[in-house]
Amino acid sequence: xxxxxxxxxxxxxxxxxxxxxxxxxxxxxxxxxxxxxxxxxxxxxxxxxxxxxxxxxxxxxxxxxxxxxxxxxxxxxxxxxxxxxxxxxxxxxxxxxxxxxxxxxxxxxxxxxxxxxxxxxxxxxxxxxxxxxxxxxxxxxxxxxxxxxxxxxxxxxxxxxxxxxxxxxxxxxxxxxxxxxxxxxxxxxxxxxxxxxxxxxxxxxxxxxxxxxxxxxxxxxxxxxxxxxxxxxxxxxxxxxxxxxxxxxxxxxxxxxxxxxxxxxxxxxxxxxxxxxxxxxxxxxxxxxxxxxxxxxxxxxxxxxxxxxxxxxxxxxxxxxxxxxxxxxxxxxxxxxxxxxxxxxxxxxxxxxx
Length: 354
Prior knowledge:
This protein is mostly helical. Helix content is 67%, strand content 6%. Strands 3-2-1-4 form a 4-stranded mixed β-sheet, with helices on both faces.
C-alpha cells in the first residue's frame, strides 16, 4: 500500500518536466480559442472589406461578361485566365490574413516555441490498440460532448436569428438585387456576431479544461521527483557524504594552523579562537581556527601541546567567533582589544626567553 501510494501523481510538475513537455511539443492548447480568433478576424475583415469585395466582383463580372460575347482564341483565353486569377487574388486579399490570427492564438496561449519533435515519426500513433484507447479516453469523451453542445447552441442561435427575420423574407421577392444582397448581408452579420459570443464562452471553458487536463498530465509522483533530483543534482546521500568529507578536510587544515597561532582566546570552555599576526603577510591579525564544543576543546589541546598561550577573554572570543570567518582578518573595531592581547602575549614570550 505504501508503494502504491508513493506512485500516485500528486505533486506539481517541476520546471524540468515542463521544459521537456515544451520540447516535445506538448501544450495546453485549445482549438476553440483558435476558432474564436479566426471567426472574429473574419467578421472584422468582412466588415471593413465587404464593399471592396462586392465592387471588385461586380467589375469583374461586367468586364468578362462583355468579353465572353466576342470570339475567343487560345491566346485570349490564356490572357483572360491570368487576368481573372489576379483579379480574384486582389479581391480576396484581405481574407488571406485570417489564418494568421489562428497562428497568433497559439502564440498567445503558449508563447513562441520551435521544435521538430512532433514531426518525427511515431509508430505508436498508427497502433490500433492505442487508437482504441484514445476513443474511450476522457479527452475523447470531452471532445464529443463539447462538439455536441457547440453544434446544438450554434444551431439554436442561428435559428433564433432567422426566426426573427422570417416575417421579412417574403419582401425579398420585391427588392432589387442590391437591396436584397444588403439585407442578406445584414442578417448574416448579425448571425456571425452572436456566433462569436457563443464561441467565446465555449473557448473560455475549453481553455480552462485544457489547462486543467494538461497540468494533471504533467503531475509527478514523489519517486519521479526524487529520481529527477538524482539526475540533475546527484544522489542526496552522496552529496551529504561529500559535504561531510569536505568539512573534515577543512577541519584538519584548520587544526594544522593552530600550532602556528600567537594566542588562543577562550570563552573559557565553550568557544576557542586562534589568532596569528604576521606583519609580512597581512595588515591585521588573522583568525586561523575557531570552533565550539568538542572542536574548541581540540583547539585548546593542540595549543597547549605546542606551547601556544591560551587566554580567557569571553567578550573578545564571542565577537571573533560570531563575526570573523576562518582565514579572514579581524575587523577594525576589534583592533584595540586584540592588540592588547597580543602585546600581553609578546611580553610573556620575552620573559620566558630571558
